[in-house]
Fold this protein.
Amino acid sequence: MARIWVALLIFPFFWANSLQAQTAMVNVAGRNTTSLNGNWQVIIDSGGGGDWRQFWQEKKPQKKTDFIEYSFDGGPMLKVPGDFNSQRCELTYVEGTVWYKKQFNYTLKSDKRLFLHFGAVNYLAEVYLNGEKIGSHEGGFTPFQFEITNKVKEGENTVIVKANNNRLGNGLPSYGFDWFNYGGITRDVDLIETDITYIDDYFIQLKKGSLDTVLGWVQLNGTKATQKIKIHIPELKLSYQTKTDSKGFARVEFSSDFQLWSLANPKLYQVIVESETDTVADEIGFRCIEVKGNKVLLNKEPVFLKAVNIHEENPYKRARAYSTEDTKILLNAAKDLGCNFLRLVHYPHNENMIKEAEKMGFLISSEIPVYQHIQFSDSLVPQKLETMMREMVNRDKNRCGVVVWSLSNETYPGTPNRNEALIELTQKCKALDSTRLIVHVINTQGYGNNTFNVWDPLYNYSDLVAFNEYIGWYIPWQGKPSETKWNIAFPDKPVFISEFGGEALYGSKGPTDEAAYWTEEYQEKIYKDQIEMFNTIPNLCGLCPWLLFDYRSLGRMNQVYQNGYNRKGLLSENGEKKKAWYIMHEYYKKK
Ligand code: GCB
């Protein structure tokens, strides 16, 4: 029986240091995997004793007089994947450490390699296998893995994970962020078995600007570096052959008469990559995304981005979204609003979300948590920026629905080292993937005398002039919206309003004046005014209301209207449509 495994994507150069997590990797499903999802035993370490008591040793009393003051046995369980905050009330507001334990059985095989793969752990993960530290990973929203071929034992094995979601000054994001800090093992955990030499990674997308030519590569990992490679697309009767070099690398270039992936027809093909020792399969779409002059082009045709901002939260469960069911709630709501583009903020969302969105014909912006107050001058930050960007790009580079890598949101031009760090990051991202747009999102830069001044030099490195503005909410209008003037230092680039809006508690009524903040009528008025203003924007290529659903954010503490929620949703957390929803829906219908 043919085994068709979906690809394992790892950056080989991370292998040098065994305690360094390997940057990884999509498409675990379909490989020869064993899921470690389900119930994990936990110790909630509010006192911080786990480190000095060395919980990973899991010492057990040998006789009645042995005194050991911790144990996973008899304690609570948490579901993986899942944030810990929403699973037990004593964890609701915890930002700290939870230790997780899971056992698995394994039969050793001399012709296989084994990897322990995590979809995401927020924010720091330390991973132990059978009492030995196998590595750590920083960053709450991207996958990582460790090779455990030489560490796994015959029979029973124990994995212990220290998951810590404390905020770090030099973290990504830093201390302050406007979303709920869900902690824990929030995505899948899998054991992945491969052959000794396996298909480590591949990039199969249309060449920049082309509608019919794939330009990519295949990378093998293992001792048999030089192998014949075949790429099949059965539906197109396409069979392409190449060979890897002594480093296991093969350049790939072939043409075909693709039915292009588009909004109306999000066509995906089964693509099979075969080496002499391994076979993987993926569902891949082919499309061309470009900025030409002041327009965004999809498959050479101008497209207006009818977008919406989405946080990775299941509003009904008040929990981090993860499952296909969770993503369907968010995606169906975006479709219902009339959107064709999703700005997935402010961190890489889970793979289910990306894959389902791609299947439904959404264009996607994926973002790393480079949010507001990043400490660019901290010596550790540049490496963290690069690693997180690589982890995001690496996971989703074969997902044609993803058309934008968003590398920052609302960083401040005056912050020391900000420009240098983000310019370098942009260049590295481009080197990794030249096919997609790269965007930096800037906060309102200057609004006075009813005129917007848009000047941030970072736009030199952004394919769109993307900015957030909250006129009518944080900043009052200074004239008629329909008479707004624009002074944009980048007159040839498309302009994307990446955030706008205001808050309303669903059901809160009042007159349409400024005194009635928090009412649905006032939010509706903001949307009407904004729509008037949009007509004045030169080169407008799209709009992205902030945001789809009301979402949890502890900083939002107007206890009458917010109560721990950012209420800028067009939908309440119960899915009720606010008045502003109808305004936006109508606007998108006509666009
Ligand atoms: C912004 C941020 C977004 C916030 C939003 C708000 O500019 O990018 O993360 O949550 O404003 O509601 O103020």
Notes: The radius of gyration is 25 Å. The longest strand covers residues 97-106. The mean pLDDT is 94.
